[in-house]
């Protein structure tokens, strides 16, 4: 099952912002499709981390054993789905990443650190932006 991460932001004086590198940590909360248990804390996955998938032959970005029903669930970041959020998207929800999920559903996202942005006029780029306590940013899973 595929779940898209959508974000919405008000970009002022920024041309675009995006995550960079395979080290970027996507902090998410997950719900077990088998028993409904939700992870109490945010867990993270990144493109750089790959594990053999518990079921099937492919690889995945995260394996998480449900604390309640003990089922082994997994999730994979679809690399090709990753894209930046631009000034044209400002104020609208846009899919910036798609997760391929087995047994879990992402229910929440925490943007945190490691974002980069490019200025609107100067073409200056800003590295390692912290969106942890940002008020111009919101997200959802569809
Ligand atoms: Zn469960």
Considering the chains and any ligands shown, give keywords for the structure.
four-stranded antiparallel sheet, 0% helix, binds zinc ion, 51% strand, five-stranded antiparallel sheet, 142 residues, single chain, mainly beta
Quick summary:
The chain has 142 residues and is mainly β. It has strands at 2-9, 14-19, 26-32, 43-45, 51-52, 59-60, 62-65, 72-78, 85-86, 94-102, 104-110, 115-119, 125-129, 137-141.
What is the element layout, followed by pairings?
Elements: E1 2-9, E2 14-19, E3 26-32, E4 43-45, E5 51-52, E6 59-60, E7 62-65, E8 72-78, E9 85-86, E10 94-102, E11 104-110, E12 115-119, E13 125-129, E14 137-141
Antiparallel strand pairs: 1-10, 1-14, 2-9, 2-12, 3-4, 3-11, 5-6, 7-8, 8-10, 12-13
Bound molecules: zinc ion.
Residues 32, 34-35, 37, 66, 68-69, 71 line the site of zinc ion.
Rg calc = 16 Å
**Strand percentage, roughly?**
over 45%
Largest sheet properties:
5 strands, antiparallel
Helix and strand sequence: EEEEEEEEEEEEEE
Mean pLDDT: 93
Sheet with most strands: strand arrangement? 7-8-10-1-14
The total beta strand count reads: 14
- Helix-strand makeup class: mainly beta
Helix content: under 10%
Small molecules held by this entry: zinc ion
- Separation of the first and last Cα atoms: 11 Å
Number of helical regions:
0
Q: Which segments are poorly predicted (pLDDT under 50) over 5 or more consecutive residues? A: none
- Can you tell me the overall shape? elongated
Describe the structure.
The chain is an all-beta fold and 142 residues long. It has no helices and 14 strands. Strands 7-8-10-1-14 form a five-stranded antiparallel sheet, with no helix packed on it. The radius of gyration is 16 Å and the shape is elongated. Zinc ion binds next to loops.
């Amino acid at each position: 099952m595929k779940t898209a991460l959508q974000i919405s932001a008000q970009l002022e004086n920024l041309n675009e912002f995006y995550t960079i590198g395979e080290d970027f940590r996507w902090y998410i909360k997950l719900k077990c499709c088998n028993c409904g248990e939700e992870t109490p804390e945010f867990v993270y996955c990144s493109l750089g981390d790959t594990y053999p998938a518990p079921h099937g032959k492919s690889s995945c970005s995260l394996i998480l054993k449900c604390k309640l029903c003990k089922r082994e669930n997994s999730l994979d970041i679809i690399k090709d789905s990753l894209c930046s959020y631009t000034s044209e998207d400002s104020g609208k929800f846009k899919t910036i990443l798609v997760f391929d999920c087995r047994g879990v559903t992402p229910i929440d996202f925490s943007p945190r650190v490691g974002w980069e942005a490019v200025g609107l006029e100067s073409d200056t780029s800003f590295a390692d932006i912290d969106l942890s306590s940002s008020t111009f940013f919101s997200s959802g899973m569809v």
